[in-house]
Structure formats: C-alpha cells, structure tokens
Amino acid sequence: MSFTSDVKEELTHVEPLCSHCDRATLAALVRVEGTLFLSGPQSYRVEIATDSASVARLVIRLLHSIYQLRTELTIRRSVLHKTPNYLIEIPTQPNLADALVDMGIVAEEGGLVMGIDQRLISKRCCQAAYLRGVFLGSGFISDPKSDFHFEMIVENERFADDAVAILNEAGIGAKRMARRSSHMIYLKSGNAILEFLAFAGAHRAALMLEEIRVVKSVRNDVNRQINAEIANQHKATDAAVRQLFMIREVLREHEASTLPPALQEFIRLRVTYPEASLKELGERHDPPLSKSAMNHRLRRLEQMLE
Known about the structure:
By secondary structure, the chain is of the alpha+beta class. It is built from 11 helices and 8 strands. The protein has helices at residues 3-11, 21-33, 53-67, 96-102, 124-138, 157-169, 190-200, 203-253, 261-272, 278-284, 291-305, and strands at 34-40, 43-50, 72-77, 84-90, 139-141, 150-154, 175-179, 182-187. The strands form 2 sheets. A 4-stranded antiparallel beta sheet has the order 1-2-4-3. A 4-stranded antiparallel beta sheet has the order 5-6-8-7. A hairpin with a 6-residue loop joins β3 (72-77) and β4 (84-90). α2 crosses α3 (53-67) and α10 (278-284) packs across α11 (291-305). It is rod-shaped. The chain starts with a helix and ends with a helix.
C-alpha cells in the first residue's frame, strides 16, 4: 500500500469528537467525490466513486446512519490498472433532497452551494472532520522517504479558498493553484504536512512521518559533514602540493643547510608529512607550534621564492 492509502485507511477510523463531525466528513466526501444528477424539480440522484474500500464503507455507513438513505454499491475493476473502483449510487428517494441541503451541497432555495457551508464547520473539531473528508475524497501525500508533497484536488475555486482558509486558521500554511479545470490545495513543507495529519486525526501516520523526517535530517547532516571534511581534505592536499613545489624551487637556489633552523624544520616536517595540514604540522613540531607560527614560516619561504 502507498503512504496515501495508509493515511486514508487510518482516517476512516477516526472517532468523531462531537455529534456533528460525521456529518461534516460525509458532506465533504459527497461534495468532492460525488456527482449530482437532476431528474426533475427537487428530484436528485447521486453517484460517489472512490478507489478505496475503506472510504466506500465509511460513506455507506454514514449515509445509512445519519440520513437513512438507501444506497447501491457496484464494484468495478479497471482494465488498465487492474485495481477495483467502488461506485456508490444514492437513487432518487423522498429524503435525499433534504439530506443534500443539510450537507451544504444544495441550497434551500435551489441551486448548488459553491463554497463550504459554514453551518458544517462551526466548531474546530468539525473543521478537522470536514478537511478529513476532503482528503479522503481527493487527497494525496507522496512517500515521505522522497520529497515532501501534499495535495487535495477540488473542482470549485470558492470551495478551494474556503478549505485553504480553514487550514490557515489552524496554523497550517496552505496554498491554492489552478490546474486545468480544477484547483489544487497544496502543502510543500514536511512540517505543514505533519501538522495536517495531526489536525485531521492521522496520529499514527504523523508519528511515522516525523520518524522519517528525523532519519532524513540526521542523514543529511552526516552527508554535509562528510562533504565538508572531504572538501577540507582536498584544500589541505592542494595547499600541501603547492608548498612542496615552492620548497623545491627554494632549494634550487639555496642550500638547505644555509636556511634558518626554523625553515629547515618546516621543510623537514612538510616533506615527511605531505598530506598534513599546517595545524597538524605544528602539532608534530618539537615543541608544538600554533597554526599561526607555521603559517609565518610558510610566508618566509614564499618571500624567499619571490
């Protein structure tokens, strides 16, 4: 199973915090995944399609328990992807129109509700439940072992703006982007995705994501340290090569025995330990010298070369 499937499986088992949370979740699911058919005045039929068996079970259970609606389930299998698809049909029935009004999908005076009905999200727990339904319907989270990416696709711009407003009010930085005929609500940072999972109630997935983030952070720190050490080693090696070349040129013009004792000792250490840094050469000196002292001897040799 993908990480998205794991998250959705967990979210379908979140217990509601108040008596209205389930209605908010169902309303978002029907809004995002449902297709509304009008067969006459106040005569509706709804089809809801999902690839998740757990989401299909949740939709059917809530439709029965909250609105006592009759449903029909058809399981279809994709020829291309070989995966099942679940089609839930809510046929025309006397109480369907009232249920659609109660879920904020159809307005009382007729016509569709474009944004999110504020009656459904009057409480913080209901806001979380509603966004839980939006994610169950159209959410995607990439495998956190790769790059962090989160998105929810909705059809209506006002609906997308209302969802982004809920996320931002909860302190979760979200943005909206138009994509062809739909709108994408997205989070980019791992921290924002972690906050959404906790807000929506996917605490097990949030802990898994945090563990992966820590491992990636430690791995990145180790890689940066190794790269820095390698770079420093390359710099030290290049400097040592230049110093050996300079020593050779100086000794072409001067007998080693005629050089000051301090320079003779510097040359001996450098030739003996060609890959050592100036600091390490100073530590090998008897008595030990600072890097600054060794650098002073190096400058005297450079002056002689000039």
